[in-house]
Write a structure and sequence with these properties.
The protein is an all-alpha fold and 123 residues long. The chain is built from seven helices and no strands. It is globular, with a radius of gyration of 16 Å.
Protein backbone atom coordinates (compact mmCIF):
# COMPACT_ATOMS: atom_id res chain seq x y z
CA UNK A 1 0.00 0.00 0.00
CA UNK A 2 2.81 2.39 0.91
CA UNK A 3 4.52 1.78 -2.44
CA UNK A 4 1.29 2.58 -4.29
CA UNK A 5 1.08 5.79 -2.28
CA UNK A 6 4.63 6.68 -3.30
CA UNK A 7 3.88 6.06 -6.97
CA UNK A 8 0.70 8.16 -6.94
CA UNK A 9 2.58 10.91 -5.11
CA UNK A 10 5.28 10.91 -7.82
CA UNK A 11 2.61 11.41 -10.48
CA UNK A 12 0.97 14.21 -8.43
CA UNK A 13 -2.18 12.14 -7.95
CA UNK A 14 -2.53 13.27 -4.37
CA UNK A 15 -5.99 11.92 -3.57
CA UNK A 16 -4.95 8.38 -4.53
CA UNK A 17 -1.64 8.80 -2.67
CA UNK A 18 -3.57 9.79 0.47
CA UNK A 19 -5.87 6.81 -0.04
CA UNK A 20 -3.02 4.30 -0.20
CA UNK A 21 -0.98 5.82 2.62
CA UNK A 22 -4.16 5.69 4.72
CA UNK A 23 -4.61 2.01 3.81
CA UNK A 24 -1.00 1.34 4.85
CA UNK A 25 -1.71 3.02 8.19
CA UNK A 26 -4.91 1.00 8.65
CA UNK A 27 -2.93 -2.19 8.08
CA UNK A 28 -0.09 -1.09 10.36
CA UNK A 29 -1.04 1.82 12.66
CA UNK A 30 2.58 2.28 13.77
CA UNK A 31 4.05 2.60 10.26
CA UNK A 32 6.07 5.80 10.65
CA UNK A 33 6.91 6.24 6.96
CA UNK A 34 3.26 6.11 5.91
CA UNK A 35 2.37 8.93 8.33
CA UNK A 36 5.38 10.93 7.22
CA UNK A 37 4.71 10.47 3.50
CA UNK A 38 0.99 11.18 3.88
CA UNK A 39 1.94 14.35 5.76
CA UNK A 40 4.14 15.36 2.83
CA UNK A 41 1.25 14.84 0.43
CA UNK A 42 -1.10 16.91 2.59
CA UNK A 43 1.56 19.62 2.67
CA UNK A 44 1.76 19.61 -1.13
CA UNK A 45 -2.03 19.90 -1.37
CA UNK A 46 -1.94 23.43 -0.01
CA UNK A 47 -3.06 25.57 2.86
CA UNK A 48 -6.39 23.81 3.41
CA UNK A 49 -4.55 20.60 4.28
CA UNK A 50 -1.66 21.94 6.39
CA UNK A 51 -3.35 20.94 9.65
CA UNK A 52 -3.65 17.38 8.32
CA UNK A 53 0.05 17.45 7.44
CA UNK A 54 0.94 18.60 10.94
CA UNK A 55 -1.19 15.86 12.53
CA UNK A 56 0.60 13.22 10.44
CA UNK A 57 4.06 14.65 11.13
CA UNK A 58 3.27 14.75 14.85
CA UNK A 59 2.11 11.13 14.79
CA UNK A 60 5.21 9.99 12.92
CA UNK A 61 7.41 11.78 15.48
CA UNK A 62 5.43 10.32 18.34
CA UNK A 63 6.25 6.89 16.96
CA UNK A 64 9.88 7.79 16.14
CA UNK A 65 11.14 11.08 17.64
CA UNK A 66 14.35 10.83 15.61
CA UNK A 67 12.78 10.39 12.17
CA UNK A 68 14.92 12.87 10.28
CA UNK A 69 12.76 13.35 7.19
CA UNK A 70 9.72 14.07 9.31
CA UNK A 71 11.60 16.48 11.56
CA UNK A 72 12.83 18.37 8.52
CA UNK A 73 9.43 18.44 6.83
CA UNK A 74 7.64 19.54 10.00
CA UNK A 75 10.22 22.29 10.50
CA UNK A 76 9.64 23.46 6.93
CA UNK A 77 5.89 23.45 7.58
CA UNK A 78 6.46 25.59 10.67
CA UNK A 79 8.55 28.01 8.60
CA UNK A 80 5.77 28.19 6.01
CA UNK A 81 3.38 29.13 8.82
CA UNK A 82 5.81 31.70 10.30
CA UNK A 83 6.22 29.56 13.43
CA UNK A 84 9.97 30.12 13.49
CA UNK A 85 10.58 29.14 17.14
CA UNK A 86 8.98 25.75 16.53
CA UNK A 87 11.02 25.32 13.34
CA UNK A 88 14.19 26.11 15.29
CA UNK A 89 13.38 23.34 17.77
CA UNK A 90 13.02 20.77 14.98
CA UNK A 91 16.11 21.97 13.10
CA UNK A 92 18.09 21.88 16.36
CA UNK A 93 16.96 18.31 16.97
CA UNK A 94 18.12 17.39 13.47
CA UNK A 95 21.53 18.91 14.17
CA UNK A 96 21.75 16.89 17.39
CA UNK A 97 20.96 13.70 15.49
CA UNK A 98 23.22 14.50 12.56
CA UNK A 99 25.85 17.20 13.20
CA UNK A 100 26.70 17.13 9.47
CA UNK A 101 23.21 18.17 8.40
CA UNK A 102 24.23 21.48 6.90
CA UNK A 103 20.79 22.15 5.47
CA UNK A 104 19.27 21.98 8.96
CA UNK A 105 22.00 24.35 10.22
CA UNK A 106 21.27 26.75 7.37
CA UNK A 107 17.50 26.68 7.79
CA UNK A 108 17.86 27.17 11.54
CA UNK A 109 20.06 30.22 10.94
CA UNK A 110 17.46 31.56 8.52
CA UNK A 111 14.81 31.24 11.23
CA UNK A 112 16.99 33.07 13.74
CA UNK A 113 17.64 35.84 11.19
CA UNK A 114 13.93 36.26 10.50
CA UNK A 115 13.12 36.40 14.20
CA UNK A 116 15.86 38.99 14.76
CA UNK A 117 14.58 41.06 11.85
CA UNK A 118 11.03 40.94 13.20
CA UNK A 119 12.18 41.90 16.69
CA UNK A 120 14.27 44.79 15.31
CA UNK A 121 11.31 46.13 13.36
CA UNK A 122 9.16 46.11 16.50
CA UNK A 123 11.61 48.24 18.50
Amino acid sequence: MNNYGLEFNKSNNYSDAIHYFSKAININPIYVNAYSKRGNVFDKMGETFLKNALVDFNMALLLDPNHENTLFNRAMLFMKNAEFQKAIIDFSRLVEINPNDFEAFSKRETCYAIINKIQASIK
